Every structure is written in structure tokens, then in C-alpha cells.
Amino acid sequence: MVRARIDRYKVRQLMKGRYDKLEDLAAAARISPTTVSTGTDSYSWRSSTLDAIANALGCSPLDILTVDEVNVLHSPKRTDQAAQAERVLQYDQDFTAMRSGNYTNLDSLLAGVNANSSQ
Predict the structure, then answer these.
(1) Quick count: other Cβ atoms within 10 Å of Cβ 19?
(2) DSSP state of 5
(3) Which residues contact 68 (CB under 8 A, 6 or more apart)?
(4) Are 3 and 43 in contact, with CB atoms under 8 Å apart?
């Protein structure tokens, strides 16, 4: 999976000669220093933050983004969320099949639900 982040190194390079500290950049961008600090090198940021920083630096938003290859399979939380999403999808498919009359054996539907709920 690929994820985009506001690259702190690129921001620092573009700050040279304009702003001495992230706080100065934050003031020029009219956002809080905390937003600048937490928004850079994070995969969780708002497009308005990206735009504000890029505008203050006088560059395109694309100039300060970096795209990383992220391996989410090693994250237990992500794996649990994926397994839960898979179970919900299976429930939805089973329920849709049952409502449409395509499920001829209610016992097999219930067995599938009971097996998934014990996981």
C-alpha cells in the first residue's frame, strides 16, 4: 500500500532563507505550530494543512509530499480491522443471499455466522 505524507525534510529545505523555525512557518501559514509539527512526517493530515504550508512556502503542494510504500500486514491493529471487515462483508453477503432466496439451507447460514462470531 502506498501512503502520502508531508515531508518534513522537504519543508525544511524550502524554509531556508524564509523561516528560521517551524513556528515562523506556522504563523505565515496561519495554522498552529502543533498542526505543522504533527502534520509533517505523518500519514494523517488535512488537505487544508497541506495547502496552507505549501502557500506559505510559495510552492506546489506536490513539492512537499512524499509517497511511501507501507506494509500494513505487520500491524496487528490493522490485521484485526481487516479480519473484522472481512467478517462483516461475509455477513452482508449471506444476508443478501438469504433475502433474495438464494440461500436454500438456513442451517448453513447460521453455522457460518456462529463460526465467524467465535473468532
Answers:
(1) 19
(2) E
(3) 2, 3, 4, 5
(4) yes
Average pLDDT, consecutive stretches of 10 residues, N- to C-terminus, the chain (119 residues): 87 94 94 90 85 94 87 57 64 63 54 52
Dihedral angle at the C-alpha atoms of 47, 43, 31, 63, nearest 10 degrees?
Answer: -70
pLDDT confidence of residue 11:
94
- According to DSSP, residue 118 is labeled T
Distance CA 53, CA 28 (A): 8
Distance between CA 112 and CA 119 in Å, rounded?
11
Contact criterion met (CB below 8 Å) for 66 and 3: no
Q: Which contiguous run of DSSP H or E holds residue 3?
A: strand 2-6
Query: Residue 92: which H helix or E strand, with range?
Result: helix 76-100
Place of cell 502520502: 4
Local structure of residue 6 (DSSP, 8 states):
E
Please, are residues 8 and 41 in contact by the beta-carbon 8 Å criterion? yes
